[in-house]
Design goal:
Length: 433
């Protein structure tokens, strides 16, 4: 199959590289000349484990190309995947679809012969109808099928998620279009991944419902964690106790500082907007969004409480800044609210993150950025772990204790066993334990 992917952001680049690895011929298109120039030189603009090698192999095999020329990329393609950004629109939280619609209009003019136009970007229900209208308006004689094929990739594990998915969702009504999609995903049948076909609107909603459900699961366990602290229970025991029930499942039950990232915060908000437009309120998701928003600053206050309720003039070492490990992504990271809450209360912050320093500098001012974990800890009055990078799981606790003015450890990801740290003489605060 000949595939064009519009947008070389996270989703576009991972999808393009993986499709080419399946053996398809893929052209990735982006307007951003510097991005395409970097890709031509073999430099990957995002941090994703394994992506550089995958791109390199497939470029060398002649299956993966990059261009700024949309018409050139789309010409002769069997399928064009639209994978441009859908950020929250400033002001009202609706998904901003201007990039998707602009891409559709450009594709319409460049396509040759029957072309399947696939929305890979996360788009509200009904966007496929509008994409179809734009295609017909921009090219009345064109032959198109519009399909929704949402992605469920986790940052940091995106390649594995793409190649070994729990399922692939394809929504569309045109049999020719669905046949092309089956052919594109056929290599996955080796991994026995189910490719589920449904209506286009069903597929669009599946993406939002899935992310909202996962956000709900996290928020649920976070509130149970708060209750555990009050009643003297351990949320990890409770999570295991409920998670082994197959109907519940043990994943996404790790209590922590609240979810962040590029998807959950944006997609839950967009789902609420859609639900308002269609007068089908999603009260549960409303509660999830508000509970999670409040939680991030509450985690800052938790640190302040652990430090005796007064942090003025004190220094806090923060380890982990990205919204989760194995990414450099700072979008909606709980670390932002935690650090700002500490700063508002008069504390200084020394921080370190294995990959997120460059992005962190753009969003967090007045932080002393350090070259390593121990440098951040040196001379601080307390240590806070905000993101569970592996590198922070086995700190030399004796050394850490000797470097801190007070042995205060706040573990917002529950990565340390209480008995181990307390034996070393730390005053230990975790989440829900
Ligand atoms: C998510 C979805 O998992 C993916 O399917 C979708 O396509 C995009 O959004 P991602 O944003 O990469 O992927 O991160 P994910 O691993 O899902 O974590 C999201 C947030 O939830 C992180 O801040 C993480 O720390 C938090 N989280 C996750 C918890 O606090 N507890 C958990 O048990 C799981």
């Amino acid at each position: 199959m000949r595939i064009a992917v519009i947008g070389t952001g996270y989703v576009g680049l991972v999808s393009g590289a993986c499709f080419s690895d399946f053996g398809h011929h893929v052209v990735c298109v982006d307007k951003d000349e510097s991005k395409i120039a970097a890709l031509h030189e073999g430099r990957i603009p995002i941090f994703e484990p394994g992506l550089d090698a995958l791109v390199d192999t497939n470029v060398k095999a002649g299956r993966l190309e990059f261009t700024t020329d949309l018409a050139e990329g789309v010409k002769g393609a069997d399928a064009v995947f639209i994978a441009v950004g859908t950020p929250s629109r400033r002001g009202d939280g609706h998904a901003d679809l201007s990039y998707v619609y602009a891409a559709a209009a450009d594709v319409a003019k460049a396509a040759e012969g029957f072309t399947v136009v696939v929305t890979k970007s996360t788009v509200p229900v009904g966007t496929g109808d509008e994409v179809e209208r734009i295609l017909r308006e921009a090219n009345p004689s064109g032959d198109f099928a519009v399909v929704s094929n949402p992605e469920f990739l986790r940052e940091g594990a995106a390649i594995d998620d793409f190649k070994r998915p729990d399922r692939v969702v394809v929504g569309g009504h045109d049999e020719r279009g669905m046949a092309v999609m089956r052919e594109i995903y056929r290599p996955l049948s080796l991994n026995r991944a189910p490719v589920i076909e449904m209506s286009r609107r069903g597929a669009e909603l599946t993406k939002y419902a899935g992310n909202a459900f996962l956000a709900t699961k996290i928020t649920f366990i976070n509130e149970i964690a708060d209750l555990c602290e009050k009643v003297g229970a351990d949320v990890q025991e409770v999570a295991r106790g409920i998670g082994l029930d197959n109907r519940i499942g043990s994943k996404f039950l790790h209590a922590g500082p609240g979810y962040g990232g590029s998807c959950f915060p944006k997609d839950t908000l967009a789902l609420l907007k859609t639900s308002q437009d269609y007068e089908a309120p999603q009260r549960i998701v409303e509660a999830v969004v508000s509970v999670n928003d409040n939680r991030k600053r509450a985690m800052g206050r938790k640190v302040i409480a652990a430090m005796g309720d007064d942090v003025r003039g004190k220094t806090v070492a923060v380890l982990g800044l990205t919204f989760k490990p194995n990414t450099d992504d700072m979008r909606d990271s709980p670390a932002i609210a935690v650090i700002q809450t500490l700063q508002d209360a008069g504390a200084q912050v020394q921080a370190y993150d294995p990959e997120g320093m460059e992005q962190a500098r753009k969003v967090l001012d007045n932080v002393t950025y350090c070259d390593g974990a121990y440098q951040a800890i040196e001379g601080a009055d307390a240590l806070v772990i905000v993101t569970e990078w592996d590198a922070f799981r086995a700190l030399d606790l004796k050394r850490v204790k000797s470097m801190l003015s007070q042995p205060i450890l706040v573990d917002l990801r529950n990565i340390y066993p209480r008995d181990v740290v307390e034996r070393e003489g730390f005053v230990y605060t975790a989440v829900g334990r």
